[in-house]
Amino acid sequence: MSQNLKEVNLQVDFMKIGSIFAIIKNSLIAVKYIENENDEFERIFDNWTDVEYLSDFFNEHIKDLQSGFYGEVGVEQAIKKTIQEAEELEETILEISESGKTNDYEALQTLFKPLHNNEYTLKDHQQTKAYGSEHKSWLRIYAIRIAKNTYVITGGAIKLTKTMNDRDHLKEELKNLDIVKEYLIDNGLFDEDDFEYLEIK
Prior knowledge:
201 residues; alpha+beta; six-stranded mixed β-sheet; 20% strand
């Protein structure tokens, strides 16, 4: 692919990003994609606590749910588990976003881990993931690390398979991580001070 074509494709991808909001000022940031009504932080937690959405999702992915990767789980049990865990996870992220402003030991980077398991060091614009609170959780929140307590939420997913390359909705999250990372770099957003202009949503 030529450099010019690559740049054109990146600009097309960037058009997917409508705006960026501060959920917690200078700490928790969220992208809003043009095709969605809400920013990604609000959207994923709305979905994860919506019985109808979860019922449709688990019935669509019933083979993955009942593959044994997470044990024997029925749809109703999966819905209850997801809602409870999502509520706990949202509360935890918001609390850590605030506490991390003054306490390095309770910063967001203690919650978000590198996306790739073979990465053991922190990097600029690192792609990261946070898990739900339960052991072997299937909830994932994806974000780009800016600083120890500044993360840009790019999306989230219910991950019922071992890798992210097996299902389209997970591949989309990988693509969004790439798009947002390049967008932040291209627009010179490198540290927490670069996000001070954002108003709290």
